[in-house]
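Below is how a single chain appears once it has passed through the pipeline. First comes the sequence as given, then the structure the pipeline wrote out for it. We keep one example in the README because the format questions we get most often are answered faster by looking than by reading.
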Amino acid sequence: MGTNTTFSGLKLLGEHQKPIMIRSIDGYLQGSLDLQNETDSKVTLKSMPIKAPKLRNKSLEPLSEARLFGKLYPNECGKISFNVPIDPSTPPGSYEATIQVGDKKLPAQILITENIELEVEPDTILLNVSSKNVFKRDFEFSNIGNTAVSIDGDWPVTLKSQQGMETDIIHLLRDACDGVSNAENHDAVAEILCNVANTYPGSAKVSFEKVTIKPGETTTVGATISLPDNIQNNMHYIADLDLYSANIQLDVYKRG
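Resulting structure:
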């Protein structure tokens, strides 16, 4: 049988598995305690002391308390959740901690999982195509996760028409296929399909300089954006490039 521990009129219930397991999710430590209110009044829980010598909060100060979320009525039992904001660049691994419940200090084990998270500026690039199809741009990447991230090499992205071509295709094909099927009609369909295909130029390529961005670091990374040669006049294309959690949108215009 486990022991019950007084916690300002509350008890930590049942057979207790040591150490208390706490895990990281999106920059927070999260866990829960099974408690019973043995007082005659409703108890609202707001905070609880916690110490972890090797961890820091988001302000880079030593951890001191966990925020609690819940309330218990007289004689009520319940699972009370808590969380602790931590330095998002904390390396993955297992860390020792203690949680104070009343006059007892209970051991806890904190598991920090790998978190790859990038932010990028700018996240939208406007390209006006005239005589050249190759552009140089700089991006500022911020690593707000806890794991080093490498960016390099070529990243292909598919250009998509913004002219509502899908609807046009349907109407054109219906017109071409209306009536009796014959050789002339087949030629018309083939011509329409070729014209439609020419409005989709294929893939662009974004080539980044080789760089490794450490947790908490912000770095400027140069890139070369190469567009295909068969971009049509008077067209607007977009392309989305996903780099881990960061997204870059290319807006490509070509006027006749």
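The domain at 118-162+201-254 is CATH 2.60.40 (Immunoglobulin-like).

See the next section for the split statistics.
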